[in-house]
Specification:
The structure is a homodimer of 483-residue chains. With 483 residues, the first copy, chain A, is of the alpha+beta class. The first copy, chain A, is built from 14 helices and 23 strands. Chain A starts with 16 loop residues before the first helix and ends with a strand.
């Protein structure tokens, strides 16, 4: 046995996956905990990733004829009570605004100006958007109405983890209203499919699409559809959900309209959301023991260039060569960054690795003399080291990025598929997960859910049903541990 | 005298400017009041405008090497107290979070889970971002640090008005830290200049750049710079501000670093913001008695096309003609919308007018037969009615939009310049504004501010100092009524 390979991240995934996760975020400088309980600060590199994700998905939203809007942050307390399941689902974790100013006192500043009716900081906006829809929708001619907002929401979580579960997070929430049940059903599946395309084709996260069991539905929904991803520790991450709310919310809020026959009908509504949690999913799917690996299509920097200037060497020729190269890359639409910091070259290389730029380019005096460059794929590492001409790199770079995307996706998909096991009974399930070496999901006939208290029993083993996959025509249910 | 000209907006600007303003927003369907006290709902058309504004200014921010981030919505109460002037400035209008869940009681849902330390919903983020900078900045090598966030903020306003003054609003807040006082000063002026370029070149709002008087400074700032616009009723609108915070915030929060000589120094910080209030400024600068006029460079739809189909006429030829035209416009980067609603043609025309699309195109059977189209500039109206070939329109449309922008800007600038009067004394000032016909600003030597209680006296006449314009080398002060 040789000596232990040095890794950039300590501990490794195998040693302590949750701690590895925190250390990857720190090493990539993506986010950190804030002095506000359970709330994170998204740092420039993490936010640049989120902006790229937003840019892509916002385009997809608009292609679906959804219009962006902005609704108030605060929800009147009385609104929360209108849908019984909904309030039940969110009352336990609401930030409540009770006062509207601060006053000096012997104890320092204290809240003053008590509000007649308290407000809740939105945990989600079905109620306040539904209330507006009730005013805006008069006739079937006003339908469909499709609205979305990119905003912050707040759920007072007790155990938080950067990106995965924070008291405040950023998301998009779509809220659509339709004339018929069929349209609402079709729409909730269509938005789920938009999520699948987005996370698979842009974030390189393979997901299983399916329906949540009744126990796992969004509070107040008729049906919740989900995309479920498997992390490298085998745990599930719910990566996005789309809800068919039927007429539950429209009846409790009063979204009614004059139908084609002149009769009064209630709208059929849907809601759908993805959040900054997806960033946690990308880290836990793609990261390795050297840190983050950014999926190329949303990577803040697709190519990072490290000038290699030896002590006493004149940097100007190298810099001119790099400037010219950068201009060529930008001309073909590549997001590129040059690491020009006053910092030792090995540190720059390790920073590029930890931050996970898909392609690292090294250019020193020798490269300049030969009119070439050296590049390394982050996902493969030094075995991918290639020297080629600048012209070849510029013409091939899109293709290399595509290959990185495909390889990242396929590696994650292979891992996932290898870690799904078909079983037959509750005993099989608990037995499977009782072995440390067994991770991932088990798949079992949905008939198992007829066992009284089945999902409660699962939970006592820290297991949950993830979804009834569409691929199995809803006849199987996937079970696993989850984030 | 002929009979009164019909206008799309009632009342007219002359009849009741504030009510005209509300009616323009309603007629253009941009925003409305929400059930949450003082908070607005930004509707799709208003939000599309904000998105275009964001897109432009976000690019300018990035050109200034500022990085986007996201900080928590909630500010611990203790943070607010750290800068005395700052808390004094914001304590009177803070939304305070005191509880973290809801509980059922005989009175319905009530706040429960009282927090040990209350939180304030950010009215601005100097304190929470400064606290992070204090951790992140160790050495002069970490400077400059330039951060920005696009977010919601909350100030509990008592008298609110859509866009202009709402309890919650959307904005960007930039927070920069520098090694030297000179850099901070230069930066606050540079960001002010970015605002001037943005509002003049994209929103067609002429502004006066200058410094605020000491009384009107941002709480805790050494200097506040401002861009001031004049609305059509002569009132001022503060359209954006940039603050040189000196070392006030860095000292109270502890943003210190090891300087080049190894000594410990405090950073010099700046902050700068613009908000959805700018939309109010655009309405009150550009709107007319028929409604909104959108500045072309940020207009949600630069061209709106109205198909004119007579009863019994086959629409398909017209629609094909329009589809082809739309494709050509999109190919040259024009934001275009076709009004395909089942609605009477005159109503469509009036909606286009009220929403203020810069160019309205009408295409009916006659246009199709002749291979032409008819267009009308919103800012000029029917006198600009022109018939030309599709090819000519497509090749000229950018130029027409530029002319509209320039004309809108120049009209507003002429109006403003005509309504600034030079005066010499406090008596002159109050006398000027005592005549209903006199609107706008007066300009007076800054020496007038030596009069004890001068600005307080002004306020008793509902007047405020707007700024000491750079154009007058800071030797004059502008005074007016303000939003």
């Amino acid at each position: 046995m040789g000596k232990k390979q040095r890794t950039a991240i300590t501990p490794t995934r195998a040693e302590d996956f949750p701690e590895w996760y925190q250390q990857v975020i720190k090493a990539a400088d993506m986010a950190e905990n804030s002095p506000v309980r359970g709330c994170m600060i998204i740092k420039p590199y993490g936010f640049a990733l989120w902006e790229n994700m937003q840019g892509v998905f916002d385009g997809m939203i608009k292609d679906h004829d959804v219009e962006n809007v902005y609704f108030p942050l605060l929800i009147p307390l009385s609104f929360m009570s209108r849908e019984a399941d909904h309030v039940e689902g969110f009352a336990k974790e609401c930030a409540v605004v009770t006062h509207h100013r601060l006053e000096a006192s012997d104890d320092g500043l204290v809240p003053a100006g008590k509000l007649e009716e308290p407000y809740v900081i939105r945990p989600t906006s079905e109620m306040i958007i539904g209330d507006a829809m009730a005013r805006w929708i008069q006739s079937y001619r006003d339908l469909p109405m499709k609205l979305n907002q990119w905003c912050n929401v707040m759920r007072w979580e007790m155990r938080t983890r950067l990106f995965l579960r924070t008291s405040e997070f950023l998301w998009q929430e779509g809220h659509n209203a339709f004339e018929t049940a069929e349209e609402a059903q079709e729409d909730s599946l269509k938005m789920l499919e938009a999520y699948r395309v987005f996370v698979e084709d842009y974030l390189a996260l393979p997901v299983i699409t399916g329906e949540k069991t009744e126990d796992e539905r969004f509070p107040g929904a008729d049906a919740t559809y989900t995309i479920e991803a498997m992390m490298q520790d085998g745990k599930a991450l719910q990566a996005g959900t789309s809800h068919n709310l039927g007429q539950n919310f429209s009846k409790s809020i009063g979204i009614k309209f004059q139908g084609r026959e002149g009769d009064e009908e209630f709208a059929h509504t849907t809601s759908w959301g993805i959040s900054t949690r997806l960033i946690g999913g990308m880290i836990m799917t793609h990261g390795d023991d050297d840190g983050m690996i950014m999926p190329p299509r949303v990577a803040p920097h697709q190519v990072i260039i490290i000038p290699i200037v030896r002590d006493g060497q004149d940097a100007s020729t190298i810099n001119t060569y790099i400037d010219d190269f950068v201009a060529k890359l930008k001309a073909v639409g590549i997001r590129v960054k040059v690491d020009n910091r006053e910092e030792r070259t090995p540190n720059k290389m390790w920073d590029a690795i930890k931050k996970g730029a898909p392609i690292r380019v090294e250019i020193g005096g020798r490269e300049v003399d030969d009119g070439v460059l050296t590049y390394i794929r982050r996902d493969i590492g030094k075995d991918s080291k290639t020297t080629c001409s600048v012209a070849d790199f510029v013409s091939d770079v899109q293709g290399v990025l595509e290959s990185i995307h495909d390889d990242m996706f396929n590696r994650a998909k292979t891992f996932r598929d290898e870690n799904i096991k078909d079983v037959d009974s509750l005993i099989d399930i608990t037995d499977y997960f009782s072995h440390d070496a067994n991770i991932g999901f088990v798949r079992v006939d949905t008939s198992i859910m007829d066992l009284p208290g089945f999902e409660k029993a699962l939970k006592s083993h820290s297991l949950t049903t993830r979804c009834m996959p569409f691929a199995n025509d809803g006849k199987k249910v996937l079970i696993g541990k989850a984030y």
